[in-house]
Design goal:
The chain has about 220 residues and is an alpha/beta fold. The chain is built from eight helices and seven strands; from the N terminus they run βαβααβαβαβββααα. The structure holds iron/sulfur cluster (SF4) (2 copies).
Length: about 220
């Protein structure tokens, strides 16, 4: 799940100068998090209308990052044709994909924070930064890259106080890594020296692999 939160409304008003707006929500993560599903889209419509904007229509796409063809989206939502701008209430990925398709200005209504999930009904953030080379097994299943505030791969910074990170006062990821490896009987993993992340694997590596296997164009995302 992609974790997003709504931008401040006054920030949105500063950003969106156009008067005729079409609002798009996302039926997946943004809806689950109550930041971009139907109720939030309708609330946004009312708030923007009360600020003098003309809302030409709204829609909640089933998956904003995988909208099919733009022709199809337009066909189902003719109000888009009357708008000068789209306000997208999805994660940055959905907003970016729609920006590639739409021929008008696209504004993101949400700020995307991290990749997370829901674990035992608790929302967990910062679980993964999509580095392209997953090594969490060496860290007891905890991603040091995303859960340590300094993304330290080779041990703690030593700044934790009472188990809390000196940066944000959340539980120190490295204390969690130590405890977990101890429990698993794999403390020897702490002796590994990790090279810095290979960012070439993140940029294009996966796409190239998929192209090699000729499956990129067949992908239909229904996440
Ligand atoms: S190691 Fe990389 S791929 Fe694995 S959880 Fe962390 S950021 Fe995500
Ligand atoms: S206190 Fe822990 S989580 Fe925070 S930066 Fe240092 S090692 Fe990382």
């Amino acid at each position: 799940m992609i974790i997003s939160k709504q931008k401040e409304f006054k920030e949105l008003l500063r950003m969106v100068k156009e008067l005729d707006i079409f609002i798009i929500g996302c039926g997946k993560c943004a809806a689950k998090l109550h930041v971009g599903g139907e109720p939030e889209v309708l609330e946004m419509k009312n708030r923007l209308s009360s600020e003098g904007k003309n809302i030409t229509g709204w829609a909640v796409l089933s998956t904003a990052c995988s909208p099919g063809s733009w022709k199809e989206v337009l066909g189902q939502n003719p109000g888009i044709g009357k708008a000068d701008a789209l306000l997208v209430m999805s994660c940055g990925c959905g907003a970016s994909v729609l920006s590639k398709l739409a021929e008008i200005e696209v504004y993101p209504a949400l700020d995307t924070e991290s990749l997370g999930g829901i674990c035992s009904e608790e929302l967990v953030k910062e679980q993964c930064r999509m580095c392209g080379e997953c090594e969490i097994w060496l860290y007891g299943g905890i991603c040091a890259h995303s859960q340590c505030a300094k993304s330290l791969l080779n041990g703690p910074c030593g700044g934790a106080v009472d188990g809390r990170c000196e940066v944000d006062e959340l539980p120190c990821a490295w204390e969690g890594i130590y405890d977990r490896l101890k429990k698993l009987g794999k403390l020897e993993y702490l002796e590994f020296v990790h090279e810095p992340k290979d960012y070439s694997k993140k940029r294009g590596g996966i796409e190239i692999e998929l192209q090699k296997k000729n499956i990129l164009k067949k992908i239909h995302c229904d996440c």
